[in-house]
Structures are given as structure tokens and as C-alpha cells.
Write a structure and sequence with these properties.
Blueprint (H helix, E strand, L loop, with lengths): L1 H18 L21 H9 L3 H37 L4 H32 L8 H14 L12
Helix pairs in contact: 1-4, 1-5, 2-5, 3-4, 4-5
């Protein structure tokens, strides 16, 4: 079940990434593209959820704690990906390949569990009007999945 949830989140994030920054329009006036400055992830989250000052501080603390749990898992996932490649490259049996993939999937599920726990803690901090939009909450969960892919959740991804 966790694997299905992870798969859906990865697919959704992939689709969002495919949109790119420009959205599909184009630059028809022959002006050079200027880099768009994006707000920091905490600012984006605060805006999405309409957080007040105290909530913002609490949410930052929740995400900082979640990052501490996720960081070693991300390191293990990188090693696990390498292990999958090594097993395939060495021509190992399908059972050994399956085990390497399962090990990676287990780590991914653990990261998803940390994200979900952080989300539920954040959700408990929200007022009723902040919980009213299911789409905002879904977007928040997907956003959290993306930021925890980074070494530090509150930094912009490198281009």
C-alpha cells in the first residue's frame, strides 16, 4: 500500500516538474528570459496555508524535525539505488534484483511515513478555515514530498 502511495506521489510530482517554469507560453517579444525568483519553501507553504506568525514558527519546527529523520534515509536511498545498479550490472538473479528494489522501496516508504506524520502535525496546527480546501491540503502534501527530496527542506532546488 505504501508503495502505491509513493508511486502516486512520484507520478504527480513528475507531472508537476514536466510543466516547467514557463507554463507553456513563450517569449514572443524577443526579450531575454530573466530568471524568476522563487520564494523560499517556508514562504510558499505559509502562503498556501495562510499561516499566521505563530503557526509559521510551529510548522518550521515540525519540518526541521522531519528533516532530521529524513536525511539519513535519503543517504541510505542513494546507496540503495547504487546497489540496485550493481546487482543488475553484475547479472545477479531476479530474486537478488527484487530484494535490492524492495530494500529501496522500504526506504522510500519510511520517508513517506515521515512526510505523512509531519503533514498530520501541521494539519493539527491549522484553524478550521485553513483546513477547508481539500485541494490546498493535497497540494501541501505534494509540496512536502518535493521539499524533502533536498538536503535542506527550506532551500530552492538547484537548477
Amino acid at each position: 500500500m505504501a508503495f502505491k502511495i509513493v508511486s502516486v506521489l512520484i507520478l504527480a510530482s513528475g507531472l508537476m516538474m514536466a510543466q516547467g517554469r514557463k507554463g507553456g507560453g513563450g517569449n514572443s517579444n524577443n526579450m531575454p528570459d530573466l530568471p524568476m525568483s522563487r520564494p523560499e519553501p517556508m514562504d510558499q507553504l505559509a502562503q498556501m496555508l495562510k499561516l499566521n506568525h505563530d503557526q509559521r514558527k510551529d510548522v518550521k519546527g515540525i519540518l526541521d524535525e522531519a528533516q532530521k529523520e529524513v536525511s539519513p534515509l535519503r543517504d541510505s536511498m542513494a546507496k540503495s539505488r547504487e546497489q540496485i545498479g550493481a546487482v543488475i550490472e553484475a547479472g545477479k538473479s531476479q530474486d537478488e534484483i527484487d530484494q535490492a528494489v524492495k530494500n529501496f522501496s522500504d526506504l522510500e516508504a519510511q520517508v513517506s511515513a515521515v512526510e505523512a506524520r509531519a503533514f498530520t502535525k501541521i494539519f493539527s496546527e491549522l484553524e478550521a478555515d485553513q483546513k477547508a480546501s481539500p485541494q490546498t491540503l493535497i497540494n501541501t502534501l505534494m509540496f512536502m514530498h518535493e521539499v524533502f527530496k533536498r538536503k535542506n527542506w527550506n532551500t530552492q532546488p538547484s537548477e
